[in-house]
């Protein structure tokens, strides 16, 4: 997931996070009922601009407007205006239970999430004399 929804601003953190969770699957192996538990252990965030980061943190969404545009452990700040394709790979470990308790399965399973297009804009700041929403004709408000 990317916040804001599919876009960012040069020089300002764009928030990325994963929603992968531990899950269990049931089945049979040689007619013996088994369960396999998949646990996400790392996340590879490819930000689409030639940089990537591997993290044990999945990140999290911003919690309301007061957190918007703040840096998170999995956010990325783009250096230039561009249209990029960001991607995420979640790396899972597995454990199996055939009735005698959980045992680790050697190795990991990387699973690629669907990539997402991110449009990076440039933004400028303008000094105003007051709140442009309340006084659209105030100095600097463009009217």
Give a brief rundown of this model.
The protein has no helices and ten strands. The protein is mainly β.
Could you explain the architecture of this structure?
- The protein is mainly β.
- Helices cover 0% and strands 49% of the residues.
- It contains no helices and 10 strands.
- Strands 2, 4, 5, 6, 8, 9 and 10 form a 7-stranded mixed sheet that branches. It has a 3-stranded antiparallel sheet with strand order 1-3-7, with no helix packed on it.
- Strand 4 (23-29) and strand 5 (32-46) form a beta hairpin.
Keywords:
single chain, 143 residues, mainly beta, 0% helix, 49% strand
Integer-rounded radius of gyration:
22 Å
Q: Could you tell me the strand content as a percent range?
A: over 45%
Mean pLDDT: 91
Can you write the helix and strand succession as a string? EEEEEEEEEE
Please identify the structural class as seen in this structure.
mainly beta
Share of helix, binned? under 10%
Question: How far apart are the termini?
Answer: 37 Å
Oligomer: single chain
Q: What is the approximate shape?
A: elongated
Please outline the major beta sheet: 7 strands, mixed
Could you name the ranges where pLDDT drops below 50 across 5 or more consecutive residues? none
- Number of distinct beta strands: 10
Total DSSP helices:
0
